[in-house]
Fold this protein.
Amino acid sequence: MKDWGKIEKGTLNILHWMRAINRIPKDWIKEIKNWIMENEESEKIRKENNDKIFIRTRKGYIEAANMTQKIIRQNLIDRLKREESRYRDDLAIQYGTTAMEWERIDKRVLTHSIAARSRSFMYRFNNGLTYNNKDFNRFGYKETDECSFCKEEKQSSKHLFVECKETRKYWEKLNNSIKGKPINEREIFLGNNDGEDWIKETAKNSLISFALQFIYKCNYKGINLSIVGLWENIKYIRKIEEEIAGKRNKIICHITKWESIDNLMKSAFLISGENPEKEEEP
């Protein structure tokens, strides 16, 4: 506190008895200090409000006595939010995505799955935050940065999810298992957004999400990539989602979603619990 320098005693007193002050991390205190010191209008506002202390936030000035941990946290997130990632810039150049489309993609994360782990993966994937073998090698987790599947090239995220010859075979087999238009490269990265049928669109996007998760899981654990493994993984996710939906009284939404996914498939293995004809492992 002694390092706060020019901040007047009255402000320190206010901060001492703020409801949130004793619960927030020390680095947050530094940010609060900056908000107060950068506040050019503080003197004017103070005089207009009987010398009460106000802190500047994204949504305007809030009286210090009314600050809560939630308000501080949200303001920190807003202030420290990084600029648009290079990953999104590259996709925008390649596929012509707009800010409005990215907004839809971000909102769609909540419809992929009710499970937090699946949502977390799609958030990271949509922002270029998933790791590949280049990263794992840099972290010391893997001895080499070559692709776990083809063993021929250094693995980037794009190579992992679409360019690897084994990954291409995987998507081809998945496309042979679904009705309607096949999943293309743009849909792998940005999802399906044809706007014709929201239920079918959601089902296809959920399936793409599960397929991406399985690629990532196989690469991380160093196991073979196969459609049979994907079917098993999807059934496991379905069971987890059913448990969550039951606890949240959303079982009808769960049934509707999975019926639409079942209807997307050429066979009823997701309903019956039976696997399609087994393939040879690569």
